[in-house]
């Protein structure tokens, strides 16, 4: 580069920044680039070189500052200026009309509501603040009250302006906007292909990929992902007249340099309904995933007067399209044997892409389901993802039958051990009766070692298989007598890994009683029940000697579970395992493990609680476990016996049901507050 004076450099740097910002705006917001990528790169390179030469001229809003420096140890929590609400969902035309009627009813004056509709972008909600036109803070939604500071990562997203455009509106003193960060469908595919080639795990869907990319502690990783963003809401604006309508808000956002979603103005609810119909197909042509259409009242003054519930505004609604359905073929139906001996038929499918991932298997649950849907090997079937995750065969396309399809029959003998298969009266499942069925044994050992049970690291399915094959273990008790030398004899085992395994088995001797009870894998005894049982009986012996009557007195333990426990504990094989566990000195087996953290007494004592939607920072199971730990009983559906419905993000139809049946609603915030007061930790980092 020729010699340039500081003055000259300063002028050129400013010129370049302006030019680059203009091109980025044309590219990301207007979708009308006027120069080639190569020409753009040359400008960018020139700026970078000048800034390198004069580092004191670098400013935080320079386009070069998107690459992200530094790694944050964790994300800092920042309170939101006002609660970041969610949307209520509708699944039918009727609900859309009810929404309109409600707005008319709630409005103080006679109105004919007008609406704006936008695609519901399946990404990650972000809140961004600008101070005097410069991007100052980027937050995730978090729990709606407190978000995580992801500023460094937000700055790497090229479609998000680092500095607002001032030409049209001037510069607001303060601005807070809300939008959605997403990964375009094509880029998602490419990213997954690249990751697969590199032997890395792939992302299940674009949303997860976007969330995973934005929540990176190293902003360089975020910068390497082709994230995009769209903005749809001005939350706070100072120094400039706020928008009066939704249409105006969108045009202001655009003028300030934000990319906005494709939107349509609707002069009535009729108009909304007919346009939604068009979007049903049209949405697949958008470059990003959408699962619905957002309907927004255009008049923001009326909107404000109508207000919001703790969860969602009353003047906006998400209309959700039903899950995508595709056709594929059933190539085979195979049978898998679980740890309790249940035979589960599974359809092997011609691989097909549905709702963002490739599916080649679908569980058929049991024989009745197959009969009911009349699924045969060779059939063409309609497949969808239940709740957008679990592949499910909805129906058979009978018109496509050729006559060569083969009906499925449950095997009379267990495919793993050859023992007789029975179907007990009143049960849908077929079971293997083999006492030493290798498939059952294998599954029960995998369960015993799993994370929620004894958490024995290094003892996954393939290690369990090797141990069984070498006949080193016959049950879970034998694990505790394995020696490094035994394991080293197995294929592909070195000294170090053998030592590690023995060490993690040893470490699992410390696990508390509830984990051990769960690990034993007794039918009907899940984690919640194990917790309650451990809290009640305190030692393994007392638990195993309990009568049905004593067991049914424990919260959440019904007669069926009690019977199953008594049956299991009287079995010879259980006695043998327990003797080994005692001999090995497992704390929980010899009565030395501490009591579970909570005693089962608490704000939910004796209450039946249902959860809908996702609770910030916890999985559904963690939320339910917390309820049980605080004395409650969890049920999966709302009925007149429900005491509370805990409502998380994106609640399902249970919320409507609760409203119509008058079941009290507890917000996620209230719920989290109760947990916090009781010292139950919520790990916001895992989402
Ligand atoms: S408006 C008060 N518009 O969908 C809620 N949301 O629960 C204001 N979303 O968390 C949201 N596309 O992150 C709105 N065009 C759109 C949207 C959108 C996606 C997300 C948003 C929200 C979730 C619904």
In CATH terms, the superfamily of the largest domain is DNA ligase/mRNA capping enzyme
CATH architectural category of the largest domain: 2-Layer Sandwich
In angstroms, what is the radius of gyration?
30 Å
What is the total domain count?
A: 6
Provide the helix percentage.
25-40%
Low-confidence stretches are none
Looking at the structure, what is the overall shape? globular
Topology-level CATH name of the largest domain: D-amino Acid Aminotransferase, Chain A, domain 1
| CATH top level assignment of the largest domain | Alpha Beta
Total E-strand runs:
22
Distinct small-molecule ligands in the complex: 2-(butylsulfanyl)adenosine
Taking the sheet with the most strands, its summary is: 7 strands, antiparallel
Beta strand %: 15-25%
Structural class: alpha+beta
Continuous helix count: 24
Please tell me the overall pLDDT.
Answer: 88
Distance between the termini: 48 Å
InterPro entries: BRCT_dom, BRCT_dom_sf, DisA/LigA_HHH, DNA_ligase, DNA_ligase_AS, DNA_ligase_CS, DNAligase_adenylation, DNAligase_N
Keywords: DNA damage, DNA repair, DNA replication, Ligase, Magnesium, Manganese, Metal-binding, NAD, Zinc
GO cellular component, one term: cytosol
Active site: 120 (n6-amp-lysine intermediate)
């Amino acid at each position: 580069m020729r010699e340039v004076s500081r003055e000259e450099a300063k002028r050129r740097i400013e010129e370049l920044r302006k030019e680059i910002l203009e091109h980025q705006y044309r590219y990301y917001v207007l979708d009308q680039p006027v120069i080639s990528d190569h020409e753009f790169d040359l400008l960018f390179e020139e700026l970078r070189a000048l800034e390198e030469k004069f580092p004191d001229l670098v400013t935080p809003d320079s386009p070069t500052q998107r690459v992200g420096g530094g790694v944050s140890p964790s994300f800092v929590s920042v309170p939101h200026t006002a609660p970041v609400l969610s949307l209520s969902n509708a699944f039918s035309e009727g609900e859309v009309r009810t929404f309109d009627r409600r707005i008319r009813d709630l409005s103080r004056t006679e109105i004919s509501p007008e609406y704006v509709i936008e695609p519901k972008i399946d990404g990650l909600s972000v809140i961004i603040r600008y101070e005097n036109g410069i991007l100052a803070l980027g937050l995730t939604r978090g729990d709606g009250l407190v978000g995580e500071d992801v500023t460094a990562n937000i700055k790497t997203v090229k479609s998000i302006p680092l500095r607002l455009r001032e030409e049209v509106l001037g510069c607001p003193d303060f601005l807070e906007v809300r939008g959605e960060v997403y990964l375009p469908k094509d880029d998602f595919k490419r990213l997954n292909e690249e990751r697969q080639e590199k032997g890395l795990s792939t992302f299940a869907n674009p949303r997860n990929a976007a969330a995973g990319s934005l929540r990176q502690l190293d902003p360089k990783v975020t910068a390497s992902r082709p994230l995009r963003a769209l903005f749809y809401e001005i939350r706070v604006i100072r120094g400039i007249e706020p928008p009066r309508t939704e249409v105006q808000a969108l045009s202001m956002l655009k003028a300030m340099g934000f990319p906005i979603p494709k939107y349509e103005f609707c002069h009535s609810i009729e108009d909304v309904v007919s346009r939604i119909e068009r979007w049903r197909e049209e949405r697949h042509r958008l470059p990003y995933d959408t699962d619905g259409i957002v309907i927004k009242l255009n008049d923001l003054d009326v909107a404000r007067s109508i207000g919001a519930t703790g969860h969602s505004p009353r003047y906006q609604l998400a209309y959700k399209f039903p899950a995508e359905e595709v056709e594929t073929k059933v190539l085979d139906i195979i049978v898998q044997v679980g740890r309790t001996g249940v035979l589960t038929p599974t359809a092997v499918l011609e691989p097909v892409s549905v709702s963002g991932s490739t599916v080649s298997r679908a569980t058929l649950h049991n024989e009745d389901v197959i009969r009911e849907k009349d699924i045969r090997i060779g059939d063409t079937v309609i497949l969808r993802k239940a709740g957008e995750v679990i592949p499910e065969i909805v129906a058979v396309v009978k018109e496509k039958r050729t006559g060569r399809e083969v009906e499925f029959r449950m095997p009379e003998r267990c495919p793993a051990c050859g023992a007789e298969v029975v179907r007990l009266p009143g049960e849908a499942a077929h079971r293997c009766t083999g006492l030493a069925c290798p498939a059952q044994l294998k599954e029960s050992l995998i369960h015993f070692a799993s994370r929620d049970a004894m958490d024995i690291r290094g003892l996954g399915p393939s290690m369990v298989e090797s141990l069984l094959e070498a006949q080193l273990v016959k049950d879970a008790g034998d694990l505790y007598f394995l020696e490094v030398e035994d394991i080293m004899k197995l294929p592909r085992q070195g000294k170090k890994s053998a030592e590690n395994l023995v060490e993690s088995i040893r470490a699992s001797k410390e696990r508390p009683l509830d984990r051990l009870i769960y690990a034993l894998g007794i039918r009907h005894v899940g984690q919640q029940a194990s917790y309650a049982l451990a809290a009640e009986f305190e030692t393994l012996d007392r638990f195993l000697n309990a009568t049905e009557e004593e067991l049914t007195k424990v919260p959440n333990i019904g007669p069926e579970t009690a019977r199953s426990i008594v049956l299991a504990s009287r079995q010879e094989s259980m006695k043998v395992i327990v003797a080994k566990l005692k001999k090995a000195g497992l704390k929980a087996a010899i009565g030395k493990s501490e009591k579970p953290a909570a005693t089962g007494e608490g704000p939910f004592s004796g209450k039946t609680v249902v959860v809908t939607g996702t609770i910030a920072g916890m999985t559904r199971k963690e939320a339910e476990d917390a309820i049980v730990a605080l004395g409650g009983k969890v049920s999966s559906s709302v009925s007149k016996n429900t005491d509370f419905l805990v409502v998380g993000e994106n609640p399902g139809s249970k919320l409507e049901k609760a409203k119509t049946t008058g079941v009290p609603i507890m917000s996620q915030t209230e719920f989290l507050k109760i947990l916090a007061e009781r010292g139950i930790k919520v790990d916001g980092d895992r989402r």
